[in-house]
Amino acid sequence: MRFCKNNARFKMAELIWMVAIFLYTTIVFIKNSLLSTTIVISNAQLHKLAVLGVVLLLASEILEFKLDKSYLFKSVVIGVLLGVLFLISFRWSGTSTLQKYYAQVFCYIFVARNIEWKHTSLVVGLELLLLLMVVFLLTNSGRLPNFVFIQSGGTRVRQSLGFSYCLQFTACLLNAVLLILSARGRKIHIISLAILMVGSILVYEMTDARIGFAGICIAIVITLVYKFFPMIERKMRWLFWILTISPFVYLLLSVIVTKLYNPDVAWMVAINGKLESRLSLSQEGLINFGVSLFGQNVNWQGSGADFNGYTAINIGTYNWIDNVYIKELIDHGIVYVMIYLFLLTIALICCARKGQYLNILLMALLYGIGLIDDNLRIYCYNSMILMIGTEFMKEDCTKINVNFLQKAQ
Questions:
Q1: Cβ contacts of residue 220 below 8 Å, gap of 6+?
Q2: pLDDT category of residue 407 using cuts at 50, 70 and 90
Q3: pTM for this structure?
Q4: In terms of C-beta density within 10 A (0-12 exposed, 13-18 middle, 19 or more buried), how is residue 398 classed?
Q5: In the chain, domain spans
Q6: Backbone dihedral region of 185: left (phi > 0), alpha (psi from -120 to 50 degrees) or beta?
Q7: How many angstroms separate the CA atoms of 376 and 101, rounded?
Q8: Residue 223's Cα: distance from chain center in Å?
């Protein structure tokens, strides 16, 4: 690694980083859930905590700073790219405090380049599980709103479990599960997997969030295969390298399918119906709003409940796009999407060079779900984005880990 774990200064920097990311995760979670309507903490106090998080980031960065040409060059490169992402995201956040908090994630990614991914993913994953348990208990005790959505002609009853919509609890749970699986890898115990699976089934029974639940099931199966069949690292290394460019493949697939969708073709209409109009809505979004270099302000109308507790089913003309790639192209523009996916691809390549194939599989799964779910744009549903920072600066991502390959063979 680039830094010595035994160095007290670096240990302190990592500890400060952990406190900062803990605060940031808590703030975003509170603001994104209905905890913001009931918890005894004002927006001004949350703002102060956010400022404290930024101060801690600066402290961690100062302690980690290194006068090394290679280190400084890489820091400038990733700093400029993340700075562009931050400015574009912040530009279109408008007056929304929540959206401004989302934009801050790029600051955390920058400082994360000095931190171990396993430490970060484990801390954030366990924190999210704890926060979800708190929300679950408060909801079932009646202290937190639990909206019930009746869909499909009354045959599909779904609970929001302390969020504004029934998909969000499971989406956050998927994020936490992926983080824990990534952190533990082959070391994860079967009992832990069983607990995660049982908990996910319980949540699914209440929310009927099929996409998130399917993602959790697939992630656990992938981890089990990776745990008990280590030979796949050698036999399927070609697949892992192909998956490093999966984000761009997903983007290309999204654009092609959206452009080619024809409402006059029966089989396309049938697929669109199965996908709950996702194809037609994506196409309409591109036609109505178009795509620019640096994004635009779009008034999206979706389903759910607002944070004041009023149900808001299909207010106005429903135009919500669930494909995160199309939505980000419309919202934040071509430059933003290209830089974001470029950094993500570099992180995946670094994982491949170091033999961290489970991380590649989990990221490919998560961003594959982005084809039909736009929650990836929000930090508490996609904390895996921090991997962009943690993997970018590591020296051993510039060359193949020879010792690891020899062991794999």
A1: 177, 181, 193, 196, 197
A2: very low
A3: 0.90
A4: exposed
A5: 115-229, 237-409
A6: left
A7: 15
A8: 19
